Structures are given as C-alpha cells and as structure tokens.
Fold Glucokinase.
Amino acid sequence: MSGLTLVGDVGGTNCRFALAERNPQGTIELHHSERFAVGDFSSFHDAVKGYLDAQKLTPKKAAFAFAGPKFGDEIRMTNVDWVVSESSLNEKFGFDDVVVLNDFVAMANGATVIPDDGFDVLLPGKVNYNKPIAVMGPGTGLGISCIIPGQPLRIVPTEGGHTAFAPQNAFEQEILTHQLGLMPYVSAESLISGPGIPRLYRAICAIRDEVATLSKPEEIVAAAQADPKSAARLTVVTFCNLLGGFAGNAALTMGASGGVVLGGGVSRHIAPFFDQSEFKERFKSRGRGSFFVKDVPVRLITIDFVALYGAAAMVLN
C-alpha cells in the first residue's frame, strides 16, 4: 500500500483525499476516497495527517490541487487562510515527490483523460485539443484555466473569476446595483459560484419586494425545482444565464476555439435548468465576436473526482 500516491483536491469548503495508482492497462484508479470539511482543520498539514493516520500509510508521492494561485512552490488559497508549499510538505511528511497545483489546472488535466461518456453536450461539436480550450466551473469560487495545444499540452491557470461582473440587461443591472450597496467590488464569482446563489437569491427577492426565506444553495435549487414561479426559480435560471455569458467571454478572452468545458459540483447541480435558461443564447451572443463562438463546443463534466485524476496524472508515470 505504501506504493500508492496520495492525491487531494482542496476547495474553500471541502477537501477530498484519495490514494491513486496506475493499473496494468495504464489508467488511473482511486482508492479510499474521503471528504473532510476545511473548517475542521487549522492547517492543511493537519488534514493530511488525519487522513494518513486513518489509512496507516506513508506514501512517497503526493499531488494536491488547491483553489488558489501558485507562486514558486507555494499555493495561496483564495477563500481560506491556508498557504501550502511543496518544500513544507516534503519536510513534514517525507515525500520523495510532491506537487501542489491550482485546482483548475488539475481539473483541466483530468478533463483530457476522461472518456467521452464522462461529459454531457451543452453545445454540439467535438472538443479539439489541437486548439485552446477553456476549463471553468463554479464552486466556492469561480475557477478557470486554459489548455494550450502542443506536445505535451500546457495548462495555464488564471484568476478570471475575479473579473468584474458584467450585467447584460436592465434586470441584471438592478442586481449589480443591489450588490454594490453591500460590497465595493462585484466580481463574477460573487454571483457565479456556490455562495453566489444565495447572494443572487437575496438580490432578486429585494428587487421583487419579497422576503428572502432561503439561505443555502441546495435549498434554493430545490425550491426552484418545486415552483416555476418562485424567486428561487428565477435565481437559478438567472445563474445559468450569467454562467453562459461568462463562458462566452472566457471563450473570446482565451481564444478557446477548441471548446469550453464546465466542471464542478455546482454546474452538475444546476444542469437540469440549462435548457430552461438562456445559457446557450448568452454564450453565443457576443456582439461582433459572435462569429468566433458560434461553433465552439461546450461540454459539462458529469463524473466525480476529475481534479483528483488530474492531480494524480501529474506524478504517476
């Protein structure tokens, strides 16, 4: 068991660990996956120690994906006060080989190895890895990276979720005005993220002069499914609209003519509402830039643990 590689995917809310290996067919297998609340640990080292103690293992290789940018050998998480470096992990746990990387680098790397049946098609066409591809998705934040063609493929992480929220109609302008009364800068991820769903819901309730009775994203999505005339339904449909517009902007900004891939649990959770929304129209409606995105395929990752597979592929030969 010590020959297995420790992998982790660490977001602003949860961290997930597993043990990875390549099977004789050359594909990656994950074992003993466990999820922990980030808030239960004072440091990432404590979380790793807790998992390894429970597994009674001392792996020699590790790869960890984090929601945050990498500087040198160090990751600074965006929504959690954790700073993690490869050198500190080596010193603490005695790894022979350890890699820390941005979570959407891992997500993008994982997207290149999962089979076609691991995706749903939102806009038709085959993803072309000979052209740039944007990989993005809402979670605790709004992650986005770009796959650059070549041998090997290169993945560029970005902090594009922190770009300014851009309303496209009078209703969305009202949402922006409401949010500006609560925060000095409204980023895209302020609204297009898991925590953004309750923010969007409260803004819509205020605009409709209704009392906001729901507080959790999952409550709002459930209420949206139950009542098509509710503020919750309008919230989730609006969320899909905003996500479509942001994805279209990403395709233009990154020159992602090869495709756009959506990942993360939030995207899968709201997937039943894509067809009820203007997601596709918003993606394609780019003014004079519409010619560029009109044939760009958009896919939704439907399988779990893609970032773990992507992290594992970084260290498994």
Summary: The radius of gyration is 20 Å. The chain has a mean pLDDT of 94.
